[in-house]
Amino acid sequence: MSVEKKKVVVGMSGGVDSSVAAYLLKEQGYEVIGVTMQIWQDTERLVQEENGGCCGLSAVDDARRVAADLNIPYYVMNFKNEFKEHVIDYFVEEYLHGKTPNPCIACNRYVKWESLLKRSMDIGADYIATGHYARIEQLENGRYSLRRSATLAKDQTYALYNLTQEQLKRTLMPVGAYSKDEIRKIAENIDLKVASKPDSQDICFVPDGDYAAFIRENSDKEIPEGNFVTAEGKILGTHKGITHYTVGQRKGLGLALGYPAFVIEIRPETNEVVIGTNEDSMTYYVRANRINFMSIEDLTEEKRVFAKIRYNHKGAWCTVKKTGEDEILCTFEEKQRAVTPGQAVVLYDGEYVLGGGTITGDE
């Protein structure tokens, strides 16, 4: 008597990682359905088509060809409304409030998982799957957690820390056990045309990198010029509007102060951008809220963990403790540069994600 094959919906971006994920799952005996999430807001913006990546219009063409090569059914699902609400509107609002958001984290939690998972369950799927470089394991305490990718150079657990237990339980990530070179080799061996397709870069819905222009186009709020000031309030010059800046920024300030100047704080309530030295941008402390615990249900006592305060941060040791119902304080063993409100701090217990939250500031 044959075991009924489990049905899995694979989110296909047209890239090599999600394409190979679909292939690996089919080889493992799953009933695989390919889905591309239509999330772009304006199909006339050819720049997005040229940009490619998971938001590019070319993603559909590439993903459809791969699905045909793998002989799996393929659909395009419309998630424009969810993407606008949870990613674009959030991105704009955070910048207007002087923060620097990570839209990929919001997209992963609320669009690629929450919305796709619900729709996939509605059509009878048992799981969803992606081409992320991460692994999902159930721990001895019964909880599901992300384990860092077999290849740390491509590890994507930072951007996935916010997934819920139910989402992890229903997700497969077959690519996490391989290196990027191995994934490309698999794609070449089965003659996938996307084998050498370059990785997508930058924020997919702002392909030219001009965040301030995008925010201006997608907000009805006035973004006025204001003052560059020292921490004590001394005026140093005029800034172009707070959406042009992020904590830690050094280039593009247009200030000649006789020393390297850094943005150390953004004050939306007074429309000021605070300038200081590199030393001023260093701190031992990181506060965060909107906490999501993963490998544990809750943090009941102080714990020494390895933490990352931005996607490209190499990570550092700190002691984390709860300071409120939905707040943690991380005290690092060495000073960290440019703790940026709006970004995520992600905590690791060995190879596993303990949890994380949204940075609110330093001490």
Describe what this molecule looks like in 3D:
The protein has 363 residues and is of the alpha/beta class. Helices cover 25% and strands 29% of the residues. The protein is built from eight helices and 17 strands. It has helices at residues 16-27, 46-51, 58-70, 80-96, 103-122, 165-169, 180-189, 211-217; strands spanning 7-11, 31-38, 74-78, 127-129, 134-138, 144-148, 171-172, 226-229, 235-239, 262-267, 272-276, 282-293, 303-308, 316-324, 327-337, 344-349, 352-361. The strands form four sheets. It has a six-stranded antiparallel barrel. The model is unreliable at 44-52 (pLDDT under 50).
Distance between the termini: 62 Å
Order of helices and strands: EHEHHEHHEEEHEHHEEEEEEEEEE
Global shape: globular
Which structural class matches the secondary elements?
alpha/beta
By DSSP, the count of extended strands is 17
The main β sheet shows up as: 6 strands, antiparallel, barrel
Low-confidence stretches: 44-52
Per-chain topology:
Layout: E1 7-11, H1 16-27, E2 31-38, H2 46-51, H3 58-70, E3 74-78, H4 80-96, H5 103-122, E4 127-129, E5 134-138, E6 144-148, H6 165-169, E7 171-172, H7 180-189, H8 211-217, E8 226-229, E9 235-239, E10 262-267, E11 272-276, E12 282-293, E13 303-308, E14 316-324, E15 327-337, E16 344-349, E17 352-361
Parallel strand pairs: 1-2, 1-4, 2-3, 4-7, 8-11
Antiparallel strand pairs: 5-6, 8-9, 10-11, 12-15, 12-17, 13-14, 13-16, 14-15, 16-17
Helix pairs in contact: 1-3, 1-7, 4-5
